[in-house]
Amino acid sequence: MIRFSHTIFALPFALLAAVMAWVAPVDGDHELKFQWLHLVGIIVCMVGARSAAMAFNRLADRVIDAENPRTTNRHLPSGQLSVGSVVAFTIVSTLVYFGGMLFFLPNWLPLAISVPVLAVLFAYSYTKRFTSLAHFWLGLALALAPVCAWLAVRGLIVIEQPVDVLPAVILGSAVLFWVAGFDIIYACQDHDFDAAENLNSIPVRLGIAGALRLAAICHAVMVGSLMALPMAGSGQSLGLSWPYWLAVAGVTVLLVYEHSLVKADDLQRVNIAFFNVNSIVSIGLFVVTTLDLLVI
Asked: What is the pTM of this model?
Protein backbone atom coordinates (compact mmCIF):
# COMPACT_ATOMS: atom_id res chain seq x y z
CA MET A 1 0.00 0.00 0.00
CA ILE A 2 2.78 2.43 0.87
CA ARG A 3 4.78 1.86 -2.32
CA PHE A 4 8.21 2.25 -0.77
CA SER A 5 9.63 2.62 -4.28
CA HIS A 6 8.11 6.10 -4.36
CA THR A 7 10.47 7.27 -1.61
CA ILE A 8 12.82 8.16 -4.46
CA PHE A 9 10.81 11.34 -4.97
CA ALA A 10 11.54 13.02 -1.62
CA LEU A 11 14.24 11.10 0.25
CA PRO A 12 17.15 11.91 -2.14
CA PHE A 13 16.38 15.62 -1.82
CA ALA A 14 16.20 15.38 1.98
CA LEU A 15 19.57 13.63 2.05
CA LEU A 16 21.02 16.14 -0.41
CA ALA A 17 19.89 19.01 1.80
CA ALA A 18 21.51 17.29 4.78
CA VAL A 19 24.81 16.96 2.91
CA MET A 20 24.60 20.62 1.92
CA ALA A 21 23.88 21.58 5.54
CA TRP A 22 26.93 19.69 6.79
CA VAL A 23 29.34 21.28 4.31
CA ALA A 24 27.92 24.82 4.31
CA PRO A 25 30.06 27.34 6.23
CA VAL A 26 29.19 28.20 9.81
CA ASP A 27 29.44 31.73 11.16
CA GLY A 28 29.84 32.84 14.75
CA ASP A 29 30.41 30.50 17.65
CA HIS A 30 28.73 27.45 16.15
CA GLU A 31 30.67 24.32 15.29
CA LEU A 32 28.93 21.89 12.98
CA LYS A 33 30.07 18.30 12.54
CA PHE A 34 28.53 15.30 10.83
CA GLN A 35 26.52 13.20 13.26
CA TRP A 36 25.20 9.74 12.52
CA LEU A 37 22.27 10.38 14.85
CA HIS A 38 21.15 13.23 12.62
CA LEU A 39 21.29 11.03 9.52
CA VAL A 40 19.35 8.25 11.26
CA GLY A 41 16.84 10.78 12.56
CA ILE A 42 16.22 12.23 9.10
CA ILE A 43 15.60 8.76 7.64
CA VAL A 44 13.32 7.74 10.54
CA CYS A 45 11.30 10.94 10.25
CA MET A 46 11.04 10.58 6.46
CA VAL A 47 9.85 6.97 6.69
CA GLY A 48 7.37 7.76 9.46
CA ALA A 49 5.94 10.91 7.89
CA ARG A 50 5.66 9.48 4.40
CA SER A 51 4.09 6.22 5.59
CA ALA A 52 1.58 8.08 7.76
CA ALA A 53 0.69 10.53 4.99
CA MET A 54 0.25 7.88 2.31
CA ALA A 55 -1.83 5.62 4.58
CA PHE A 56 -3.98 8.63 5.53
CA ASN A 57 -4.38 9.42 1.83
CA ARG A 58 -5.63 5.89 1.15
CA LEU A 59 -8.13 6.26 3.99
CA ALA A 60 -9.38 9.63 2.79
CA ASP A 61 -9.68 8.48 -0.84
CA ARG A 62 -11.01 4.96 -0.32
CA VAL A 63 -14.52 5.77 -1.62
CA ILE A 64 -13.18 7.67 -4.64
CA ASP A 65 -10.64 4.91 -5.33
CA ALA A 66 -13.44 2.33 -5.32
CA GLU A 67 -15.24 4.21 -8.09
CA ASN A 68 -12.21 5.00 -10.27
CA PRO A 69 -11.42 2.09 -12.64
CA ARG A 70 -7.69 2.88 -12.38
CA THR A 71 -7.63 2.50 -8.58
CA THR A 72 -10.23 -0.15 -7.75
CA ASN A 73 -7.48 -2.70 -7.11
CA ARG A 74 -5.90 -0.65 -4.33
CA HIS A 75 -5.79 -2.40 -0.97
CA LEU A 76 -8.74 -0.72 0.77
CA PRO A 77 -11.25 -0.70 -2.12
CA SER A 78 -10.45 -4.31 -2.99
CA GLY A 79 -10.72 -5.49 0.63
CA GLN A 80 -7.10 -6.60 0.94
CA LEU A 81 -6.77 -4.39 4.02
CA SER A 82 -9.35 -3.26 6.55
CA VAL A 83 -9.97 0.36 7.52
CA GLY A 84 -9.03 -0.45 11.11
CA SER A 85 -5.65 -1.90 10.15
CA VAL A 86 -4.80 1.14 8.03
CA VAL A 87 -5.86 3.49 10.83
CA ALA A 88 -3.58 1.59 13.21
CA PHE A 89 -0.73 1.74 10.71
CA THR A 90 -1.23 5.50 10.32
CA ILE A 91 -1.06 6.02 14.09
CA VAL A 92 2.08 3.88 14.47
CA SER A 93 3.78 5.67 11.55
CA THR A 94 2.90 9.05 13.07
CA LEU A 95 4.45 7.99 16.38
CA VAL A 96 7.59 6.88 14.52
CA TYR A 97 7.73 10.31 12.89
CA PHE A 98 7.50 12.12 16.24
CA GLY A 99 9.96 9.70 17.82
CA GLY A 100 12.50 10.58 15.15
CA MET A 101 12.61 14.15 16.50
CA LEU A 102 14.51 12.90 19.55
CA PHE A 103 17.58 12.31 17.38
CA PHE A 104 17.99 16.07 16.87
CA LEU A 105 17.93 17.29 20.47
CA PRO A 106 19.02 19.75 21.83
CA ASN A 107 17.97 21.25 18.50
CA TRP A 108 14.28 21.79 19.31
CA LEU A 109 13.24 23.43 16.03
CA PRO A 110 12.29 20.17 14.21
CA LEU A 111 9.97 19.20 17.07
CA ALA A 112 8.46 22.70 17.14
CA ILE A 113 7.41 22.52 13.49
CA SER A 114 6.59 18.79 13.43
CA VAL A 115 2.81 19.17 13.87
CA PRO A 116 2.37 21.87 11.18
CA VAL A 117 4.48 19.80 8.78
CA LEU A 118 2.35 16.71 9.36
CA ALA A 119 -0.79 18.82 8.95
CA VAL A 120 0.39 19.92 5.50
CA LEU A 121 1.03 16.30 4.52
CA PHE A 122 -2.37 15.09 5.73
CA ALA A 123 -4.29 18.05 4.30
CA TYR A 124 -3.15 17.17 0.77
CA SER A 125 -5.54 14.23 0.75
CA TYR A 126 -8.53 16.61 0.70
CA THR A 127 -7.27 19.34 -1.61
CA LYS A 128 -8.60 17.73 -4.79
CA ARG A 129 -12.10 18.20 -3.46
CA PHE A 130 -11.68 21.97 -3.27
CA THR A 131 -9.01 23.25 -5.65
CA SER A 132 -7.34 22.39 -8.93
CA LEU A 133 -4.06 23.51 -7.32
CA ALA A 134 -3.86 20.20 -5.43
CA HIS A 135 -0.78 19.28 -7.51
CA PHE A 136 1.07 22.26 -6.07
CA TRP A 137 0.02 21.30 -2.54
CA LEU A 138 1.57 17.88 -3.15
CA GLY A 139 4.68 19.67 -4.40
CA LEU A 140 4.74 21.74 -1.22
CA ALA A 141 4.42 18.59 0.90
CA LEU A 142 7.48 17.02 -0.73
CA ALA A 143 9.33 20.35 -0.79
CA LEU A 144 9.26 20.31 3.01
CA ALA A 145 11.65 17.33 2.97
CA PRO A 146 14.86 19.25 2.10
CA VAL A 147 13.87 22.23 4.24
CA CYS A 148 13.19 20.06 7.28
CA ALA A 149 16.40 18.08 6.76
CA TRP A 150 18.34 21.36 6.74
CA LEU A 151 16.61 22.46 9.95
CA ALA A 152 17.36 19.09 11.54
CA VAL A 153 21.08 19.67 10.98
CA ARG A 154 21.34 23.45 11.36
CA GLY A 155 18.24 24.39 13.38
CA LEU A 156 20.15 26.17 16.13
CA ILE A 157 21.97 28.24 13.50
CA VAL A 158 18.72 29.06 11.68
CA ILE A 159 17.15 30.27 14.92
CA GLU A 160 19.87 32.91 15.21
CA GLN A 161 20.31 33.52 11.46
CA PRO A 162 17.04 32.75 9.60
CA VAL A 163 18.60 33.54 6.21
CA ASP A 164 20.82 30.47 6.67
CA VAL A 165 17.93 28.26 5.49
CA LEU A 166 17.78 29.95 2.05
CA PRO A 167 19.66 27.21 0.12
CA ALA A 168 17.22 24.59 1.43
CA VAL A 169 14.26 26.79 0.50
CA ILE A 170 15.55 27.14 -3.04
CA LEU A 171 16.14 23.39 -3.28
CA GLY A 172 12.64 22.94 -1.89
CA SER A 173 11.21 25.20 -4.58
CA ALA A 174 12.86 22.99 -7.19
CA VAL A 175 11.14 19.99 -5.61
CA LEU A 176 7.80 21.81 -5.44
CA PHE A 177 7.65 22.60 -9.15
CA TRP A 178 9.19 19.27 -10.16
CA VAL A 179 6.55 17.32 -8.23
CA ALA A 180 3.70 19.58 -9.34
CA GLY A 181 4.78 19.15 -12.96
CA PHE A 182 4.91 15.37 -12.98
CA ASP A 183 1.76 15.08 -10.85
CA ILE A 184 -0.11 17.17 -13.42
CA ILE A 185 1.10 14.76 -16.10
CA TYR A 186 0.01 11.77 -13.99
CA ALA A 187 -3.42 13.31 -13.33
CA CYS A 188 -4.12 13.48 -17.05
CA GLN A 189 -5.00 9.77 -16.84
CA ASP A 190 -7.95 10.61 -14.58
CA HIS A 191 -9.29 13.54 -16.61
CA ASP A 192 -12.58 11.91 -17.56
CA PHE A 193 -13.24 10.40 -14.13
CA ASP A 194 -12.37 13.61 -12.25
CA ALA A 195 -14.60 15.67 -14.53
CA ALA A 196 -17.51 13.26 -14.08
CA GLU A 197 -17.11 13.23 -10.28
CA ASN A 198 -16.63 17.02 -10.00
CA LEU A 199 -13.11 16.58 -8.64
CA ASN A 200 -10.63 19.37 -9.19
CA SER A 201 -7.40 19.04 -11.14
CA ILE A 202 -5.35 21.01 -13.64
CA PRO A 203 -6.28 18.63 -16.50
CA VAL A 204 -9.98 19.20 -15.72
CA ARG A 205 -9.48 22.97 -15.49
CA LEU A 206 -7.21 23.48 -18.52
CA GLY A 207 -7.78 20.34 -20.57
CA ILE A 208 -5.08 17.76 -21.15
CA ALA A 209 -3.15 19.83 -23.69
CA GLY A 210 -3.17 22.89 -21.43
CA ALA A 211 -2.19 20.80 -18.44
CA LEU A 212 0.83 19.40 -20.27
CA ARG A 213 1.93 22.93 -21.16
CA LEU A 214 1.66 24.02 -17.53
CA ALA A 215 3.62 20.95 -16.45
CA ALA A 216 6.39 21.96 -18.85
CA ILE A 217 6.44 25.47 -17.33
CA CYS A 218 6.69 23.93 -13.84
CA HIS A 219 9.69 21.89 -14.90
CA ALA A 220 11.33 24.95 -16.43
CA VAL A 221 10.94 26.69 -13.06
CA MET A 222 12.52 23.67 -11.39
CA VAL A 223 15.59 23.96 -13.61
CA GLY A 224 15.75 27.68 -12.86
CA SER A 225 15.70 26.96 -9.12
CA LEU A 226 18.55 24.47 -9.48
CA MET A 227 20.55 27.06 -11.39
CA ALA A 228 19.97 29.60 -8.60
CA LEU A 229 21.03 27.23 -5.81
CA PRO A 230 24.83 27.82 -5.97
CA MET A 231 24.27 31.57 -5.57
CA ALA A 232 21.95 31.40 -2.54
CA GLY A 233 23.13 32.41 0.92
CA SER A 234 25.37 29.70 2.32
CA GLY A 235 25.22 28.09 -1.10
CA GLN A 236 27.77 30.62 -2.29
CA SER A 237 30.39 28.74 -0.29
CA LEU A 238 29.20 25.21 -0.93
CA GLY A 239 31.81 24.82 -3.63
CA LEU A 240 29.47 23.45 -6.27
CA SER A 241 31.43 23.05 -9.49
CA TRP A 242 31.21 21.50 -12.95
CA PRO A 243 29.73 18.13 -11.84
CA TYR A 244 26.74 19.95 -10.35
CA TRP A 245 26.18 21.92 -13.54
CA LEU A 246 26.52 18.72 -15.52
CA ALA A 247 23.82 17.20 -13.29
CA VAL A 248 21.53 20.18 -13.88
CA ALA A 249 22.05 19.79 -17.62
CA GLY A 250 21.22 16.10 -17.28
CA VAL A 251 18.04 16.89 -15.34
CA THR A 252 17.01 19.31 -18.09
CA VAL A 253 17.51 16.67 -20.79
CA LEU A 254 15.55 14.10 -18.77
CA LEU A 255 12.65 16.47 -18.25
CA VAL A 256 12.52 17.27 -21.96
CA TYR A 257 12.50 13.52 -22.62
CA GLU A 258 9.72 13.05 -20.05
CA HIS A 259 7.51 15.51 -21.87
CA SER A 260 8.27 13.90 -25.22
CA LEU A 261 6.79 10.65 -23.90
CA VAL A 262 3.34 12.11 -23.26
CA LYS A 263 0.99 13.69 -25.77
CA ALA A 264 -2.51 15.06 -25.29
CA ASP A 265 -3.88 12.27 -27.48
CA ASP A 266 -1.49 9.55 -26.24
CA LEU A 267 -1.13 8.91 -22.49
CA GLN A 268 0.03 5.31 -22.74
CA ARG A 269 3.55 6.11 -21.52
CA VAL A 270 2.58 8.24 -18.53
CA ASN A 271 3.85 5.66 -16.03
CA ILE A 272 7.25 5.57 -17.75
CA ALA A 273 7.42 9.36 -17.59
CA PHE A 274 6.15 9.39 -14.00
CA PHE A 275 8.38 6.80 -12.36
CA ASN A 276 11.33 5.81 -14.54
CA VAL A 277 12.44 9.26 -15.65
CA ASN A 278 11.83 10.98 -12.33
CA SER A 279 13.69 8.31 -10.39
CA ILE A 280 16.78 9.07 -12.45
CA VAL A 281 16.27 12.80 -11.87
CA SER A 282 16.17 12.56 -8.08
CA ILE A 283 18.75 9.85 -7.50
CA GLY A 284 21.11 11.15 -10.18
CA LEU A 285 21.03 14.71 -8.86
CA PHE A 286 21.65 13.48 -5.32
CA VAL A 287 24.57 11.21 -6.24
CA VAL A 288 26.36 13.65 -8.55
CA THR A 289 25.90 16.69 -6.28
CA THR A 290 27.00 14.74 -3.20
CA LEU A 291 30.14 13.60 -5.00
CA ASP A 292 30.75 17.20 -6.05
CA LEU A 293 30.40 18.44 -2.46
CA LEU A 294 32.34 15.70 -0.68
CA VAL A 295 34.87 14.34 -3.16
CA ILE A 296 35.62 16.58 -6.12
From this structure: 0.93
